[in-house]
Amino acid sequence: MTDVELSTLSDDIAYIEAQGQGLQVQTANQKTLRKELESLLETTAITSNDLGALRGAPLENLNGLEDIERALVTLYKAMMKIDPTLGGDQSRKSNDGGIDNDQSLGLDNSDYGKMRIVQEKKQMYMQESSLFMRRLVEYMARQFQEATSETSRQLGEALSRKVDSHHHDAGRDLLWKYSPLILYARDVDLKNWDRLLQLYQDLNHPVYKREFQQIMTAWKKNARKMSSDETSELLFTSHAEKKEEGIATTARKLTVKRSQTLAKSLRSPLDGSRSNLKSSEGQSLPYETFGSVLDDILPLVEMEQNFIVDFFHATTLDQSDFPDAVAAFRPKDRQGGDLRRHRLMEPDRDLARRVTKAMEVIFVFMENELSGLVQWVLTVDNLQGVGVLAAMERKMAEISQTNQDFLNTLLQKLHSTLEGRFKKFVDEQIRAIEETKVKINKRKGVISFIRIFPNFSTAVENILNGVDKNLNIRGTVDREYDRILKSMFDSLKIIARENPAVAVNTGASADSEDKEALNFHILLIENANHFLEEVDARGLEVLEEWRANATAELDEHMQLYIGAVMRRPLGKLLEYLENIEAQLASGKPGTSIAAQPSNSRGVFNKVVGNYDAKEVRKGIETLRKRVEKHFGDADDPALSRNLVTKVLKECEKFYGDVELRISRVTADVYNGDTLFEWPRAEVKSGFSGLGK
């Protein structure tokens, strides 16, 4: 009985709860209905008279502009309530415009949308909006024209020729107050928004074209004048030696000095500091001129794009909608933000492409103008293309992570073209180096390409002084250095080996006094020494490696040269020592060697005794003259003297080694019992004065 009563009571409770939930739903539905009806009444209550300001209030008057904006906000909210998707995906960034979340689908997508009054109001609102947009486009066309005229006037009246972005601010200041209206156009009438942007871009094209041409002309006029003869002295192509080599030594020496002077003058750091971008004569070098032009015009281009993005609201990164923009500032207080500030990359790529298209119209001339400027630099001096590449890469690094798609694409295109031309330029230099081994007639002295490279690298490194080592240009130049140097040293060895009758280390029958064999060593010594003395590695790995290679070449051929020239003053003594040393090395006892008739103590004393003080002094004098003849007629007298001293010091060291060898043979073979003492004092006297 109790269970039945409890079950009945439970059913009653469930029924009552269900009735309560039903009442709650009914109440909620009534509230929603009331809100929908209120929204419907509010949306449809707007009359044509309420929007009269859109047709008659003056846009050029601040009060009239405020009246227009108030009416337009009313119209905007009503239109968005009917159809929130009217402006596309960009139009709905927030609900602050008065659109309730419950109405996010709009009246058009509800049963109310079928009501005749809703359809009539929607048609009226669209018509009012279209009429206003037509009026706005016509008015803004005049405003854009006035703004460009004001900018042109400011540019024309400028007392200073220095580039000043504030000249463009004068025109922009006339436009900022209309920025919310442009946002309305973007959200409600994308076709007319695009038309406004077209009007703006077309009117601004001639302003920038004229300004940029004047900037480039002024910089080129101020550039240092350089003759092709002057700059060619740094290039391998101008020094390819001809079969009939009739260049006087004096003329070659003057060439070397002139090349060194020019190389050292190319020392302007591309670190972005205008104060450093001056040559020693107070004028810009051609590559500096290019860098200065970029410093002047690229900020103007970036600011122009940022103005387009801000004024035309061509971004999805700004979350404000039209009512927000109107409420933020009164028309008289509206002004732009910092247009110099780098902006983030635009996520909406379609919108970004539209901005880029506008930039391409405004700056359609830029590619040709900058290409012409690059060509002007290269016509003066191809080597300065390195500086142009560095200037481009510096700018590309600054804007690579920004919204500047137009500039990025333009600079990458120019850079790619110039990089290809630079590689071809290096190919020409390498071809000239390799042709030297065919054309050269006089295989003597420092070969032209060895003489040129120190000045070539000095010029390049002075151009790159101050450039960020992380830029691609550093790796590009290092790779080209490696190509050039490999070609140089390969060609040098071929030139040395192609001397007639050269026979180095070809066996025991080889004549140690073979003139051509000596010339082989002399040529390599002179060139390796010149490279080491003149090339400043500047801490660059590629140059350090090639200096190490040159050092190895110098050491190897210095020893071979010394071994050859020492045969004349010390030939018989060396032959005797070498014979005994070879037997000792094979393990033969000293007593057995001394027992040989040809190596007896008496023979030893006689051989060594022939090299008394007089003979040694005479041999050293002859040797010094010979070394000076071999190495004393280089293009640079200072380098020549240093090399002669370096070789003679090696000769002196050789004489010292001979004394030690005699002592070892005396001890190991003859038990220290000999009648001769090596004239050490004469050796020291004979080589005195070296390095002074």
From TrEMBL:
The keyword Coiled coil applies. GO terms for biological process: exocytosis; Golgi to plasma membrane transport. Residues 311-672 form the Exocyst complex component Sec3 C-terminal domain. Keywords: Coiled coil, Exocytosis, Transport. It comes from the Eukaryota. The keyword Translocase does not apply. InterPro entries: Sec3_C (IPR048628), Sec3_CC (IPR019160). Residues 3-80 form the Exocyst complex component Sec3 coiled-coil domain. GO terms for cellular component: exocyst; plasma membrane. One of its GO terms (molecular function) is phosphatidylinositol-4,5-bisphosphate binding. Residues 85-107 are annotated as: Disordered. PANTHER family: EXOCYST COMPLEX COMPONENT 1 ISOFORM X1 (PTHR16092:SF14), SEC3/SYNTAXIN-RELATED (PTHR16092). Belongs to the SEC3 family. This is Exocyst complex component 1 like protein. It comes from Verticillium longisporum (Verticillium dahliae var. longisporum).
